[in-house]
Protein: Arginyl aminopeptidase-like 1
Organism: Triplophysa rosa
Amino acid sequence: MAELQRPTLCCCRKVLTVPGKSCESGRGLAHCRPVDVASASNFHSFKLRHFHLDLHLNFAVKRITGWQVLELTPVQPGVQSLILDTHPSLLIHSVDCKVPGASGTPDVFISLTHRVEPFTDYGSSLNISLPAAVIRPHRAFRVTIRFTTTDGPAIWWLDAELTCGQTRPLVFTQGHSVCNRSFFPCFDTPAVKSTYSATVRVPEGVTVLMSASRSAYSKQDRVFQFSMEYPVPAYLVALVAGDLQHADIGPRSRVWAEPCILTCAVSKLGGSVERWLNVAEGLFGPYVWGRYDIVFLPPSFPIVAMENPCLTFIISSILESQEFLLIDVIHEIAHGWFGNSVTNATWEEMWLSEGLATYAQRRITTEAYGEAFTCLETVFRLDALHRQMRLLGDNNPVSKLQAKFEPGVNPSSLMNLFTYEKGFCFVSYLSQLCGDIKRFDTFLKAYVEKFRFSSVVAQDLLDFFLGFFPEMKESCVAQREGLEFERWLNGCGPPLCEPDLSAGRALTGPVQHLCDLWGSDPPDPQKIATYDISSWSTFQIVLFLDRLLDRSPLPQEGMSLLSSCYSALLDGMNAEVQIRWLQIVVRNSFYPELPRVRSFLHKHTSRMYTVPLYEDLCCGVMKCFAVEVFYQTQGRLHPNLRRTLQQMMFQSSALNTSTAQSLFSSPPSVPSSPTDPPANGTIALRDVNVSA
């Protein structure tokens, strides 16, 4: 097969077709970034005004059938084809075109030829031939595509036993970063935004929600209608359907969930959401999306939360931890300004969404809960960043804020701590340059106002920053030695500087002191007993356990003392605490605590809690134990997670069930190091040691 031609989207947003040619900005090819979407070759040739989805959900066969209507206007002459992103799992049945007739003449309907071609392992190219006689610049036309979804990466069908209530099936979609091309054909790039509407037909008793600003329901026809009146990129179109009920928690917010967890979700959030929205509006300007609703999804939801406009998706497992729930919801609220309203134009600069949203999240928590709390949470996250940095090495290109994709690289692979925390540190540095955090708040408010509903590149942000603060441009802060903006963006390694977190020392200091006591040889039980961690916050405890994990394996006598001091206490705490304690247990091959590991894996079936423990079990001396627990619980795991765990357990050995069962009775006599890296050389989730 001939190598596919990959166009490049430049910072001036023109597609380069002549190799070696500089872009209109004059900056040269060093500033040009590839776009990993098939539609990149001609999405600039059209203005996508609106699209409509008409869908029928069939739970019995786990398929969505329907059609899509795209309203397009050519902006260039000589356009002969429309290229959209699609996926091998999306079956295209037909493509039609409707062109408005000239004054006094009827509309013209044409059946269009199309072909689906390979593009990457995560998508295909839908090439639609356009009739030159009727497709003219600035003359609107409509394309209708009829399709059926099958088993694509965007659509997650859950059998009843995989839901929280275990009574009715549920389906949800997850489009980030480039998955929605398996939901419907689209320009699957954050550079293209449009409004959309949808009609969804479902069986009786099923409630449908979408990331839309308006909705209606016809009970007689069992049809839901949705409309998103603000332009959004394709990845933010989301749907969930199942046995869902709601409760209002504020004047513009409600919680949706399965009936069995709705009361818990409401009690956890109370009136906090409106308070957080008000704080955010005071900092960054009006919340333009109207509603801010939250739907809690079953443990099979593959990430912690997703900032779908008007309707945040969040995993129900997080309800156990009040502090993590608080941070995750506030982070998704922050995306209402940074990510959803102003969006990164390319996935190679994902930090423009996640780094700015993380900064905004911490401004909100500082205003709502104080600087000490925010500093504690930041220390916890930066610890995780440095942990990942030690594993990857200082020269790993994944640590760049402006990543450069190689052909075929899935943008989802860029979902790492650097886009969040290194991006946050760069934004914090820009704030420090202002000398007054309130001045920077004013800048961010103006930035959102300037670029609202647009997609931007880093140069847009930095040019606006220097234009907003002309004295900084005059003093050449962008070229300050060792802290050059270009080095921040394109340098590998950790952040060039980190914010001052000394305001959190009253909370982080005791954690470090206790860690130091446990690091002494031998630990002094009397001094350790002076620290009552039962009075600590969740973030203090997980910071303490994470730093103990960094020191594992511990001396055996130290591990026994650690268990006697904390095991019973930690067993009664939330899952974020428990998983870290159990990782310590596994990495230290501490067999007396294995029953707690088994109980935890029987109870928790989400990816964020199972994968780290299985990674540790399989990389140490407890793979047989992992296989045993897996066979006991696999029926309650989503098929995608099941495949992940099977690959983890069996890729490096031919261990079969009978062999495994013969080994379960006693632990291996010659232990290997529980900190050995995975056999395949990849970075394990256990090594990163944070929730997604």
DSSP finds 21 helices and 25 strands in the chain. The longest strand covers residues 46-58.
